[in-house]
Design brief:
It is built from twelve helices and five strands. By secondary structure, the chain is of the alpha/beta class. The chain has a five-stranded parallel sheet, sandwiched between helices. Helix 2 (21-34) links the parallel strand 1 (12-17) and strand 2 (39-45). The longest helix is centred in the last third of the chain and has 15 residues, at 189-203. The chain starts with a helix and ends in an 8-residue tail after the last helix.
Amino acid sequence: MDGAVVSRRTQVDVIVVDDHPLFTRGLSLLLPDVSEGRVRVVGTTDDASAAAALVQRHRADVAVVDVQMPPPGGARAIAAIRRVEPTVRVVAMSGSADSDAAVEALRAGAASFLPKTADPEALVEPLLAVLDGWSVLPEALLRRLLERAAPTDDEGIAGQLSADERRLWRLIAGGAGTMDIATTLHVSERTAKRLVAHLLRRLNVATRVEAAGLAGRVGLEQGTGR
């Protein structure tokens, strides 16, 4: 980040939600020092269920949350924080490189995910960046998430659809018309047309013929749709 962005924020108040006292204490002592007073820890808790109330009490700008907290867990703490204070930005942290934990935290509302191995000095820029609308992820984690999201020929496309969408796709692949689809799905013809149009967009094709051809290429099991 450039100096212009940093200079706009004279003080960033942070709360830390973590059940490791050494980490919490170290962050509380080091962040103000390495940030030259720009970032300060105003509250800490080792109880995930207390996180949202702590954010409200201290009117924090950023919450740093360990995703591997004891029950109710870091992800629920993140969701609770975002529910009561939607403007607060959350930086999730973890001592492991588990991409599933990162996905869970991001889905719960975290703006960033950082490893606990990061030096305190390296945390200052991400903390400031999230306040300006950025999301920060380690490059290695970002690559893993992109690889997981990339569709493969078979399960990638079909696996991203709901059971109802796959059922509809099978009907289209089997040559069912709008009326047949409506009867099978117990919906009106208008709703059937809307569902088909939505599925075509999901499949990134323009016509039912293309959808049927794609079903054949990915090996989608055909049937009655039941």
